[in-house]
Design goal:
The complex is a heterodimer of chains A (299) and B (248).
Chain A: H1 2-26, H2 34-50, H3 56-78, H4 83-102, E1 108-110, E2 113-115, H5 128-131, H6 136-159, H7 161-171, H8 173-178, H9 183-209, H10 219-232, H11 237-254, H12 262-276, H13 284-293
Antiparallel strand pairs in A: 1-2
Chain B: E1 2-11, E2 14-24, E3 29-33, H1 40-48, E4 55-60, E5 63-64, H2 70-76, E6 78-80, H3 93-107, H4 112-117, H5 122-133, H6 149-162, E7 167-171, H7 179-194, E8 198-202, H8 206-212, E9 215-220, E10 223-228, H9 230-234, H10 237-244
Parallel strand pairs in B: 3-8, 3-9, 6-7, 7-8
Antiparallel strand pairs in B: 1-2, 1-4, 4-5, 9-10
């Protein structure tokens, strides 16, 4: 049972990570900085609970805010460039963050041991959950409560005019400008929202793994972050969840019995899915069909 | 309404628009014609701010707007359509108009939240009315990309009108339309003018422009070679020369 709860935790955190890239992708921007924002959230939240004794909820909010503010500041210069140049710029930012934590020492003595981040050794002993008697079930439920909250917020935003405006910018920047839309404001807002969500993902991640280090936030993680919404489709937040369950649940865990061959099949299956469903697992037509199934009408 | 003074746009050594002076008085349909590559679309892009001006000034209702960013100009009262239709194809017809309500909300200084979340009371009524007016009421939930060509043109015009502009720029609105659709467009543009909106119409379709324009300017190689009523333009020798070439 613990295995499945652990898997649920991983899927929850990766869903948040995917959603943080989803918001940015809606505006047509490809950001590989999401792992960087996640790292910031992870270190901020863990330092607040371990070193300053904050309650988890407060530390998570702070993690989201710090990551969001960073994303906002990065957004202004980064979004002046387009397409591949933006990808390169965001990769550079992600690496800067990772290398910062590679060199970041901030330890304090707690009795006979020292706690806090220690450069390449990472940040060990993030023991908020065991110290406060949370079981794996509690943690999984807590993570999914936050996932549900973020999904509800994004779902609601998507159906409001904000969603239409984000997508309009993603489709045609010239037409969007000509409709009176301030491109910079929209893109930076999306980037900020993405930063907040990635920060939350990082904060949760730090606490359930109990040990974080810079290698947890490499470009591979950033690639996963954008792969989820692309694979899942951009027509709704549920596509991202479906893609995370497909990749983390089915491909990573379900194919473990294949041993070393797993990675090969993993790649092949992703290519296959993208060929069969080029606009994502849950594309617009599927969503429309689902909506009809539940007897609801958009608009 | 709109005043261009010595407006120039150079691309390297090419003078796409060269010292252009235009005065468009309110409530007119002002036609802008000229052979291919004469600088008509560049002029529209300068007026809307998509291209930076090399020299000269643009005034809207007496206010200098030469250096304002595009989205700000829109909220001051300019809207446009594009020569090669630019709709948000993966948004529904309804959403296309919803997005354009942004300009109006900005002008009314709606609060940040209501602007973003579209909570203003009137939006639904206005969009419904605009769809009925454009004959698209039954297509509200259709993706814009799935519309027929003529419907896309109508939707783009409706989207421009949703910004409630004072000045409407139409860049070849009749391109690719059949005679019946052009007839409907003709009526629609007149209705727009009669509702008090100034129209700058760029068009290749001479029959249409001669029929509805109150005043016409002719561009050739970025310069204005003639201006006057449709009758004056039709009898102007310089215009004939620009269109038909110099007599041997």
């Amino acid at each position: 049972m613990d295995f499945y709860l652990g898997l649920a935790q991983i899927i929850g955190v990766h869903t948040l990570l995917g959603l943080s890239a989803y918001v940015v992708l809606l505006t047509g921007q490809v950001s590989l900085a999401q792992a960087g924002f996640m790292a910031i959230g992870a270190y901020v939240a863990a330092m607040l609970t371990v070193l300053s004794g904050w309650p988890l909820m407060a530390a998570l909010i702070a993690a989201g805010l710090v990551a969001g503010i960073t994303a906002c500041l990065v957004g202004f210069p980064a979004l002046r460039v387009h397409g591949l140049m933006l990808v390169v710029a965001t990769v550079a930012f992600g690496e800067i963050v990772r290398l910062f934590f590679f060199n970041f020492d901030y330890q304090i003595s707690r009795g006979s041991i020292k706690v806090g981040p220690l450069g390449g050794e990472g940040f060990r002993q993030i023991r908020y959950f065991p110290e406060n008697g949370w079981t794996t079930l509690h943690v999984a439920l807590f993570i999914w409560a936050i996932v549900a909250l973020v999904m509800a917020a994004l779902w609601w935003m998507d159906r409001s005019r904000a969603g239409a405006v984000l997508r309009a910018v993603g489709e045609d920047e010239i037409a969007a400008q000509s409709c009176g839309i301030n491109l910079t404001a929209v893109k930076v807002s999306a980037m900020t929202a993405g930063g907040v969500i990635a920060g939350l993902a990082g904060g949760l991640y730090a606490h359930y793994t109990t040990h974080i280090e810079q290698t947890n936030f490499t470009i591979l993680v950033a690639t996963f972050a954008i792969a989820y919404p692309i694979l899942g489709g951009l027509s709704s937040v549920f596509g991202t969840v479906a893609a995370v369950i497909f990749i983390q649940g089915f491909l990573v865990e379900g194919l473990r019995f294949l041993g070393d061959w797993r990675n090969l099949l993993f790649g092949a299956l992703i290519v296959l899915v993208m060929n069969i469903r080029p606009s994502g697992l849950l594309d617009a037509r599927t969503m429309a069909a689902l909506r009809r199934l539940f007897g609801r009408r958009e608009g | 309404m709109l005043e261009l003074q010595g407006l120039s746009k150079h691309f390297g050594g090419v003078r796409a628009v060269d010292s252009l002076d235009l005065r468009i008085t309110p409530g007119q349909i002002f036609g802008l014609i000229g052979p291919n590559g004469s600088g008509k679309s560049t002029t529209v892009n300068l007026i809307t701010g998509l291209l930076p001006v090399t020299r000269g000034s643009i005034k809207l209702a007496g206010e200098e707007i030469t250096n304002l960013p595009t989205h700000v100009r829109l909220s001051t009262g300019i809207a446009r359509t594009f020569q090669n239709i630019r709709l948000f194809g993966q948004l529904t017809v309804w959403q296309n108009l919803w997005v354009a309500e942004n300009a109006r909300a900005q002008r009314e200084r709606a609060s940040f939240l209501s602007r973003w979340l579209g909570g203003e009371r009137g939006a639904r009524t206005r969009i419904t009315r605009a769809l009925e007016f454009s004959g698209l009421a039954d297509k509200a939930d259709e993706l814009a990309a799935n519309l027929a060509f003529g419907e896309q043109r109508r939707l783009e015009l409706a989207r421009a009108m949703a910004a409630e502009p004072k000045l409407l720029l139409l860049d070849e609105p009749a391109a690719g339309m059949n005679p019946e659709e052009i007839g409907a467009l003709d009526d629609r543009i007149r209705q727009i003018r009669d509702s008090g909106i100034t129209v700058l119409l760029i068009e290749h379709h001479m029959e249409l422009i001669m029929a509805i324009a109150d005043r016409i300017a002719v561009l050739n190689f970025g310069q204005k070679i003639a201006e006057g009523t449709p009758a004056e333009i039709q009898s102007n020798p310089a215009v004939r020369e620009a269109y038909l070439g110099t007599a041997a």
